[in-house]
Amino acid sequence: MRIDDHHLRVMKIAHPSLLIIAGLSLWPLQPAWAAQAFQESGGQVVMEAEHPDANIPRSSKTWTFETTTAGFSGDGYLTALPNTGTNNDTGYTTKSPEVQYNVVFATTGTYYIWVRGTAATTSDDSIHAGLDGTAPSTADRINSSVFLTGFNWTRDTSDASPARFTVSTPGVHVIQFWMREDGFKVDKILLTTSTTTTPPAGVGPPESPRVNVSDTTPPTVPAPRKSPSR
Hints:
- The protein is mostly beta strands.
- It is built from 1 helix and 17 strands.
């Protein structure tokens, strides 16, 4: 392992692929914006939640890798911890822990956001999504009673409309998820242009491949701004 091939980044999650050294984790040298990205194909891209390109703790909360709850897909899942009953309904882009996923899109249009997760109570069962640092009202407060019966899929929101955002240009974009309620466990994410209301079966389709991205210009990600008040 050559030090010039790697860099140090502060992390607060445990993951089988991390090497922890004095509170720091050693990761392959890879800009958070896209030396690699998940590849969208045919209007669909799938990410295992435990494979983010960035994991940003905030307000003493962190998306933490776990494997204790049965039924997960892949290596495990992420839980917003510690679970102290916090609900960040607004202002979450600056208050809530965040995970980011680089995705290279060939297909533009409206993408519906399916989340596979679970929760112990109705105080733990929601999450916010965003695109390139923005927090569209169409993608916040993703939640469903199906989360209370084990790992299940939903695209429902508290606004009674499907979670979605618009990818207007091809190329690399950053998908964000922020904690709404701590204690929520997120297992897998499916973005699709399909308007079907039928959730994926079981653990859903396999994770999309990660590809090297030839365009190394980072996407423009605005500074975090407060999410809209309701």
